[in-house]
Amino acid sequence: MIWVWIALAPILGGLVYGGERVLRARMQRRQGPPLLQPFYDMFKLLDKRTLIVHAPHALLAVAHFFVLWFTIAAIFLGWNLLYIIFLHLFAQLLLIVAGYSVRSVYSHIGSNRELLMVVAYEPILILVAVGLYLVSGSFEISQILKMDGYLTQLPLLFAALLMIVPIKVKKSPFDVGEAHQEIVGGVEIEYSGVFYEFLYMSRFLEYIFIYSFVYLFGGESHWLGAVLVAGVFLLVNLVDNATARVRPAQMVKIIYTVAMALAVLNLAGVLL
Amino acid sequence: MELVLTLILLPIIASILLLMLPNQRAQYVVITAVLFLLGLGAFSLYTSMGVLTFQLSHTMNGAIVAADVVLLLFFLYQGRVFNHPKVMALAALQLVLYGYIESIVPEAGSAEIVVDSLSKFMFLIINGVGGIIVLYSVKYMEDEPTSPLKKRLFVGGLLVFLSVMNLIVIANSILLFFFLFEMTTLASYLLIAFRDDEVSRANALKALWMNQIGGVVILLGALVAIIGFKSVMFDTLLQSSGGMILLAVALLSMAALVKGASIPFEGWLLGAMVAPTPVSAMLHSATMVKIAPYLILKLAPALAVSMVGGIISIIGALVFVAASYLALSRSVLKEILGYSTVALLGLMMALAAIGTQESINLALALMLFHALSKALLFLSAGVLERLHHAKDIEDMKGMVTRSPKTVGFILFGFVSLTLPPFGLFMGKLFAITSIASLLKEHPSNLIILLSLIVGSALMVLLYFKVASALLSAPCDVEVSEAIAIPSGFNVPLVLLSFFIVIGALGYIMMQQNIFVVLLALPMLFVFALPSLIRRMDRYDRSQPYHCGEKEPFDAALVYFESSVKVQRILYWGFGSLFVAVAIVGALS
């Protein structure tokens, strides 16, 4: 059963992504695309003539997607949270190297920004893992989901996690990596056709990746986890509609001061 | 014992042979044979059981005292020649202290030389990685603008240095350790000054005076040991308890902080980067600076669960994050590598000072994998310097088209430092788990954990920033041909990469955890991908999109320059922490 879920993960993420576009359209009183738009896009992209800059660049997108998928599989199988975080880092670095490997200003700046994003959210993700470990006594997701009381003991850590969700799903105020109006999509710019489809599907997987962390705070109770995910989903889109993009350096600064302080305060509180 | 003697004498014999052999091919034969024998010897010692001890005779001890005095007088003389008051003052201080200690030193109790499992592990690093670097240095020195004799002296000097290193890790007497510590300082000094220009000389003198602080604190530690415990042996000192043991241990650990170039002493290691690259690789990254974590590991039984151990581990962890941060403002590749060496040495010392069995094993693993990866990176940097005359990463833009293979080696080095399943990454990963498990008993470990996490993230930024420069395509106007790497460079690099892979495999297998093995799958997949998807030529090529503009392409790199105020706070902070080690040692 679990393998079916793993196999369906990109589709699941695609639905979340489609749902998000509907939600945002409703928030802006627009009609918006249908729920299945990501899949229509897929057929459209597969039908297009694929142009590539050079082979390693294209292949790195494929590698990025599969390593990310592997990471999602590890989440569903209940592995060690730290392994999952670093597998995700690996996937991210593949994309960054891909961005650097082409002679395009936008792609290069996009990679620079992706790198800064990694530097910003990586420590918080690990601190979240450590916080969950301190309460549950294990880094294994399967063990973490057998306990509860994370939200009452780690409220500030949860707030810190909330702050990095927009970075991962590329929403304002932290959508610096993509920033369509300034750097025309950043790393994504040089991809087309089937290879862009891989990158597009990676985005779906990113949604599953970051919202799994939110879900973990529900612990044993599935409905609490689901409510948390739904709540954060709403909140992130609300904030996205209401804020402007900050500069990359500001993003790092905000995360390193506010989110880091929240996380450390919470951990110190649990320990003392 | 014969094997240990081989490890010590063989490099010296080989260096004498080298001096008499002007033919490069003959030199290669000698060095390859030595590398093979040393590696074999170190490996068979590593797999052997038991502790070897050896008592030095009276005359040998006398000779060491004489050599020590000569060495200190030489430092004094150098201080006078180059008119450097700090060098002179510290050398004079050491002479006085050393003279006083020799006058009250008790008759030897236990053996001066002890080969335990830690020493055997160090042999593996010193002879394996060190040997490969010597092999590389022959080709490197070929293009050095200096006399042939001096070139051979250089390679021979590196070999002699190997035997000094082999000796320092088996010294049980603090005074013998002091002598060898000063010998490594001498090696640093002479090799940094090798090019003998103004900058080299200034930096060499800087290394000399800073490292002599280490010598002073070792002597003070020995003095405390003699007064408190009537012994100058590490093992006797570590077995005793109470009294002033923590003061002695604290003073000795301070020497480790100096040798490991922890902030505020990192200046000497960065200055050392003006030396020829094999020196940077050998002394200032792969072997000599490893004395720092080695010494902390040796003292770990006394440091564990003491205030002194606590403060050392906090200093180490803070150095890890501070050095990674400071490195972000640099643009010379070797300086960046130097800073990251300082940072990782801090991490190793932090883990060693925590002193649980698990963290000690982690520190050992980090030492080995760091030596391999950093040697690979430094030697690759040397190739770029020799073949393309590029030292600054700003000049290395688009290096991937000019020297694809070297860039491949450098990227592999970065990947081996940051990603699963390679040893150094695994070490950091297990360190997070290990420190997290200690958090509940010692909440102060939160500082170490936080530094580890943030420092690792900053290092990812640091390494991949360099990667971005290497990968970014060069300007259209300049078209330059790719230069192939000569085999004199290629063979050592391939050997190091091979050992990194083998080491990672071995380390993964040692964990006996199926999930850890599975962590290697994505890396295998990525390396196999080009052969899985063969027919990439069926896709049409296009030019990158430039928004219709026609600008010369120049990629920007990420820099973070800390303000002068922040730097001053950092130096004063670390300076006072360094002094605090001695104060805490004296009080507890």
Mind explaining what this structure looks like?
Chain A is 76% helix and 1% strand. Chain A is mainly alpha-helical. The longest helix of chain A has 32 residues, at 105-136. The termini of chain A are far apart. Among the domains of chain B are: 1-56 and 108-172; 310-532, no CATH class. Chain B starts with a helix and ends with a helix. Chain B has 24 helices and three strands. In chain B, helix 4 (85-104) runs parallel beside helix 8 and helix 10 runs parallel beside helix 14 (307-327). The mean pLDDT of chain B is 86. Chain B has 588 residues and is mainly α. Chains A and B meet through strand 1, helix 3, helix 4, helix 5 and helix 12 of A and helix 19, helix 20, helix 23 and strand 3 of B. Strand 1 (51-52) of chain A pairs parallel with strand 3 of chain B, so a sheet runs across the interface.
